[in-house]
Design brief:
Keywords: Metal-binding. With 283 residues, the protein is an alpha+beta fold. The chain is 19% helix and 36% strand.
Length: 283
C-alpha cells in the first residue's frame, strides 16, 4: 500500500526558518539533492520531482538561532521510493565526506539522520516492505539498531547521483511537544490519527491506514516546554493532506468539538496543536 495518497491522511509539506537562505539553499541542493521549484527574496520552495513542493525554507526578518528546549521540529523525514535510493544517498555522503549524525535500522525502515546548517533535523529513509512489519495489539514493532551500511551499499546500482529520487515524499514529521495527553487527544480525536507505538510516557507515534508513523511526538525537550519565537530557526508549519474535501470538513468539525481553534486565511485552513505547532489542512 502507498501510505502517502488517498485514503490516507499524510504530511505533505514542511516550512522551516533558516538564518542564511543562500547557505541553506546550497546545502539542500548539493547535500540533500532538492531542486528549486520557486525562489523569492527571502524564501525558496524545494521539490524532488520538479512539480510537487515538499520543503520551504525561509529567512525571516530579525531571524534568531534555534531556541533550545522549546516545542517545534525534531526532524522532518524524506521517504525514498526504494532501498537502492538510500544506498545511493549513503554513497553520495561517503564520496563527499559528509558526516551524518546517525544511521539506524528501525525494523520497519532504514534511516539516516543529519542536521542542516542551522540545526534543523532531517531524516532520510526507505521503508522495508510492509509485509515484514510486525504488529501486536494494534502497535507496530520498531527498534533502533545500527544500520548495516555494508549490506546497504550492495544495493548501489552505479551511475551518477542526481539528487533525490523523483518519487521522494515527505514521509513523516517528528515534533517536540510540551505534553502528551492533550496532544494525543488533538491528533487522535481531532485529526483522526491512531497511536501505533508508545515509548513509555515520553513519546508516541501516530498514523492513518496502519503506516508505521506519519506523526512522531515527544517531550524530550522537557514537559512544559514553551513555544519558540515566530522568527527563530525551526518549524513554521507543516501541512496535512486529506483524501477528500468531505474528510477535511469532518475533521474541522471534530477539531472544533474538542476545543481546537480552526480558521481560514487566504483560502488556507489553519489550526495548531496544543504545543503551538502550526498545521495547514489541505486536500
Amino acid at each position: 500500500m502507498n501510505f502517502h495518497r488517498e485514503p490516507s491522511t499524510f504530511v505533505g509539506q514542511v516550512n522551516i526558518n533558516v538564518t542564511n537562505l543562500e547557505r541553506s539553499l546550497q546545502f539542500y541542493q548539493e547535500v540533500i539533492g532538492f531542486k528549486i521549484l520557486e525562489r523569492f527574496e527571502n524564501q525558496a520552495i524545494l521539490t524532488a520531482d520538479g512539480k510537487t513542493p515538499l520543503l520551504t525554507i525561509e529567512q525571516p526578518d530579525n531571524v534568531t538561532p534555534q531556541q533550545p528546549r522549546t516545542t517545534g521540529l525534531y526532524h522532518f523525514a524524506l521517504l525514498l521510493p526504494k532501498r537502492a535510493d538510500l544506498a545511493q544517498v549513503v554513497e553520495h555522503f561517503i564520496t563527499n565526506r559528509y558526516a551524518v549524525q546517525g544511521a539506524s535500522d528501525h525494523l520497519v525502515s532504514e534511516a539516516l539522520y543529519l542536521g542542516d546548517p542551522d540545526g534543523n533535523g532531517i531524516e532520510i529513509y526507505a521503508d522495508r516492505p510492509e509485509t515484514t512489519w510486525r504488529w501486536a495489539d494494534g502497535e507496530v514493532a520498531m527498534t533502533t539498531e545500527p544500520l548495516d551500511i555494508e549490506d546497504l551499499l550492495t544495493e548501489v546500482q552505479g551511475g551518477v547521483w542526481n539528487g533525490l529520487a523523483s518519487a521522494t515524499v515527505m514521509g513523516h514529521i517528528h515534533l517536540h511537544v510540551s505534553e502528551l495527553q492533550k496532544t494525543e487527544e488533538f491528533y487522535n480525536k481531532g485529526l483522526g490519527f491512531d497511536v501505533v507505538t508508545r515509548y513509555g510516557n515520553q513519546a508516541l507515534f501516530m498514523s492513518t491506514s496502519q503506516y508505521h508513523h506519519h506523526i512522531g511526538l515527544n517531550t524530550w525537550a522537557g514537559v512544559g516546554a514553551p513555544t519558540p519565537p515566530a522568527n527563530s530557526v525551526g518549524l513554521n508549519w507543516y501541512s496535512l493532506v486529506f483524501p477528500s474535501e468531505e474528510a477535511r470538513k469532518e475533521t474541522i468539525v471534530k477539531l472544533k468539538s474538542i476545543g481546537a481553534l480552526v480558521h481560514e486565511e487566504n483560502g488556507i485552513v489553519l489550526t495548531k496543536d496544543p504545543s503551538g505547532n502550526h498545521i495547514r489542512l489541505m486536500v
